[in-house]
Every structure is written in C-alpha cells, then in structure tokens.
Amino acid sequence: MYSVLLVAQYIIKYCNEKNYSVSNLKLQKLLYFVQAEFLVSTGVPCFPEEIEAWDFGPVVPEVYHRYKVYGSSSIPYNNTGLQGRISPSDNAMIEDMVDQCAKYTASQLVEMTHNQEPWLRAYAPYRSNVITKRSIRDFFSEEE
Questions:
Q1: Are 68 and 8 in contact (CB under 8 A)?
Q2: For residues 53 and 99, what is the distance between their CA atoms, to the nearest angstrom?
Q3: pLDDT, tens digit, for every residue of 19-67?
Q4: Pairing of strands 57-59, 129-131
Q5: What's the pLDDT score for residue 121?
Q6: Within 10 A of 114 (CB to CB), how many other CB atoms are there?
Q7: Nearby residues of 59 by Cβ (< 8 Å), 6 or more positions away
C-alpha cells in the first residue's frame, strides 16, 4: 500500500505529462476508481486512507484539503518531496485507470459515482460517511 498523497501526486504528474486536465474534483474520482481497481485486481487497497461519500461523490479528505487551493482549476505538478516510490506494475495499473477516465469530465465522473452502490449506500446529506473498501470491492467485482 501507498500513502494516498503519494498516489495523488503520481496521478497529477501523469495527468500533466499526458495533458489531461485534473482538478481536485476529478482527482477525487480518479482515486476512487484506482482504489476500486486495486481492490478487485490485487485484493488489497492501493492506499489505506478512507474514502468518504460527499455531495459531489467520493472524496479522500486528506487529498481534498491538500489541493483545495486550486479550486476547479487544473492542478499543476510540482515535486513536493513526498518520499516513496510506486512499483512499475502498480504505476501501470494507475495509469491505465487514469487513461480510461481521462475522456470524462469531472462532472461526468461525479454522475457515474452517484449512480453506483458504494456512494449511494454511504451518502447522507450533511454527513461524511465512509465508503467501505468492502463495498467498493464487492460492487466492482460484480461489474466485471
């Protein structure tokens, strides 16, 4: 497993290299889909931090607060000195998921997640409920 901030930083770096726009809102959905891919493909999470059901879909609060300064703008990549490396095979899995999601806007990704069981079950207005890793794994395992 990796720190969610390391994974977020890698996604931002990759998006900048590929000229994909990545706002904080879109980054949150990418982290959700990356986590789902890891849970289904490897049986273990990509990162240990919890994902919560917020009004605009799944959110990792730590990442949200780190990048909220950019608002709805695309987040530029700058090496903030996070320690750690992601293995080449895990990089490939992350890149594949980002490539799959790149064609969608942040709003389209929000709409997708709003129609999926993990968010629907966890969401309650004015509350930050955790979307369990088990619910994510179970939902996406059935999708395959």
A1: no
A2: 24
A3: 999 999 999 999 999 999 999 999 999 999 999 999 999 999 999 999 9
A4: unpaired
A5: 95
A6: 15
A7: 28, 51, 52, 53
Element (H, E) at 107: helix 106-114
Token code pair at residue 32: 């959700």
> Do 46 and 40 touch, CB atoms closer than 8 A?
no
Contact 10, 108 (CB under 8 A): no
Taking alpha carbons only, the member of 99, 90, 96, 132 closest to residue 22 is 99
Look up residue 42 and give its two tokens.
């490897």
Domain ranges, ordered by start, for the chain: 4-143
Q: Which amino acid is at 21?
A: S
